[in-house]
Structure formats: C-alpha cells, structure tokens
Design a protein that fits this description.
This protein is mainly β and 318 residues long. Helix content is 5%, strand content 46%. It contains 3 helices and 30 strands. A 9-stranded antiparallel beta sheet has the order 11-12-13-14-30-24-23-18-21. It has a 5-stranded antiparallel beta sheet with strand order 1-2-3-4-5, with no helix packed on it. It is globular, with a radius of gyration of 18 Å.
C-alpha cells in the first residue's frame, strides 16, 4: 500500500493506492472520500475543484450529527426540546452548515487504513454531549471498509452516515442497474420531511435489478418536489448492488435504512470527476442510516461506545 499527502490551505488530501489498481483519495474536511478509482477510472463523483469540494456539498463526506431532514429543526429527546441549525427552509438537513461535513478532522495513517478523529463539543448542532467521533477507512484489495465509532459524555442523539456519490465509469447513472430488495419506502410531505413508510410502488421497486433511469424519469418522480429518487428504503437483505457495463459495487451495512438519491439538484457548470459537468442523474448517493424520525433508535448512551459499519466492494465485470 502506498500513500501520498497533498496539503492545501483549506484541506489535506491523502491518496492511497495498491497493486490491485485500486485508489482512494480521502480529505480531512468531513473525514471524506474524495474519489475512488479502479484501473484509473473514477467510480465516484466529486468536484474537480478541491477548494470548492471542502467548502460545499456532501460529496463523500461524513454526515452528522443527524443525517436527513428534521422538521422545523427541532427534536424532542427525553422530555426536552432541542433546536437544530436551520439550513433548508424551516428545517435542518444533515447537521446544518456547520455539521461534521464541514469540520476539519485530525487523522493518523496505519498500514492499510486511515483513522479520522473529531471532538464535537456539547450543543454543537444544538444537541447535548461532548462527542468523540472516529471514522476509520480500511482498504483491502478492491474493498473499502468503513467503521464509525463514537462516545458521548451525556445521553444524546447520533445518526451519522457517509454520503458517497457513485458513478461506475459512465456518462451518468441512468443505465446503471440497481438491486435493492425492499417492499417499503418512505413517504414525504411537501418539504421532503419523511412521514412514514408505504408499500413500494412498481416504478420504484428495485427488488430485481432495474435501470435507475426507468424510475427517476417517471413523471411521478420527475415532476415531484424531489425531482427524482430521494427516498429511504427498508432493505430486506443487507447487500445492495449497483452495476454499470464495466463494474459492480456491492454495498453492505448494519444500518436499518438506506437513502437513495439520484443527484436531482445539480450545480450549474460544476466540473466533476471524470471531467463531466454536474447534471441531474450524474451520480447516485447511497446513504445507510437510521430512519430520521426514530430518535429512540439513534440514542447514544452516556460513556458507551457506539459504532456502525459500511462496506464498498468493487468488482470488474466487463
């Protein structure tokens, strides 16, 4: 395993490569995955402008303290109300403008892994508890294993994820095949706040491999507030696969839900990985997490380490 470090004023980038032709570039801002490559081909989507990357968006970044949208930026936790940062209408999205995604982490490099660490002070993002967070990425062959670990000195809420956007070497993801076995998907109000789960409609059913474009371009989604897929599924099997003509990604996690987002609100004239302009359907975010309204399940008990894992396994198929 080889690594190189690029120190910039606004962020440090650490590039790992191995003899399998697998490369991963990380960034200390947001404990992020900046880019994943196999055989020199980018399999993820992030802005080419690294300064823009560290200051904006959620590309490959650690999300938290709370992933997803929280209505009216308020939670009721153990009989007390906590106000979260507002950054989308009247609501809170992904921890707000000063969430984990925009914080600079410390890091240390081990033989085949990198560990990012951060101390989130009490009432950072409106929530109690001084939280120690660790994000460890481990590379093995063409597999990236991710473990997030955290501990708080008070009972608090934590619902982190890694917000990686995938494009497995194609012009967009509309012809990618997604296989996600689930009979339930979230419903939303007119602000995209989740309101519960409903039966998966046929046009959003990926229980058997189906091209993503078949769903995201249906009028029911294209003309909706979401403008495409931006939905939480309840997977019935841990393994979720995404496949292009040349590569397959198998994602597994111990989280009960996964948010699927088809890059419905691109940034105009933004140059992305692979010299592609950002566009609707350019990439697909797959975000394992706890359902945003389940505050009981996302409770972290005082002085108890919690953890979650995500695994990305890449294969050559063409």
């Amino acid at each position: 395993m080889k690594y190189e470090i690029e120190k910039r004023e606004k962020g440090t980038f650490i590039h790992f490569s191995n003899e399998e032709g697998f490369e991963v570039t990380f960034c200390d801002v947001g404990a992020s995955i900046y880019e994943i490559k196999l055989d020199g081909i980018s399999l993820t989507s992030s802005p080419m402008d690294k300064d823009y990357f560290v200051e904006n968006g959620y590309w490959g970044k650690t999300i938290g303290r709370l992933s997803g949208r929280t209505k009216n930026a308020e939670v009721d936790f153990e009989g007390k109300k906590y106000n979260l940062p507002i950054n989308e209408g009247n609501n809170s999205l992904h921890g707000g403008k000063e969430g984990f995604s925009f914080k600079r982490f410390d890091y240390r490099i081990k033989e085949d892994s990198i560990v990012f660490t951060l101390v989130s002070s009490a009432f950072d993002q409106g929530l109690p508890g001084n939280v120690k967070l660790e994000v460890e990425y481990t590379i093995k062959n063409t597999i990236l294993n991710i473990e997030l670990r955290w501990k708080s000195d008070e009972d608090t809420l934590l619902n982190p994820t890694i917000h990686t956007y995938f494009n497995l070497g194609e012009k967009d993801i509309k012809n990618h095949l997604l296989c996600l076995k689930s009979s339930k998907v979230s419903s939303y109000d007119n602000e995209l706040i989740p309101t519960g789960f409903v039966d998966v409609p046929d046009y959003m059913d990926f229980s058997n491999p189906k091209e993503i474009g078949e769903s995201m371009d249906k009028d029911e989604l294209k003309k909706s507030r979401a403008r495409g897929i931006d939905h939480c599924y309840l997977p019935e099997e841990k393994a979720i696969s995404l496949q292009s003509k040349r590569f397959r990604l198998t994602l597994t996690s111990d989280r009960p839900c996964i948010q699927v987002y088809s890059n419905n609100y691109p940034v105009d004239n933004l140059l992305m990985s692979g010299n592609k302009l950002d566009s609707r359907g350019l990439s697909l975010a797959l975000e394992p997490f706890i359902y945003p309204n389940d505050f009981c399940l996302m409770k972290s008990k005082k002085e108890v380490w919690s953890k979650m894992y995500i695994k990305y396994e890449f294969e050559r198929i063409g």
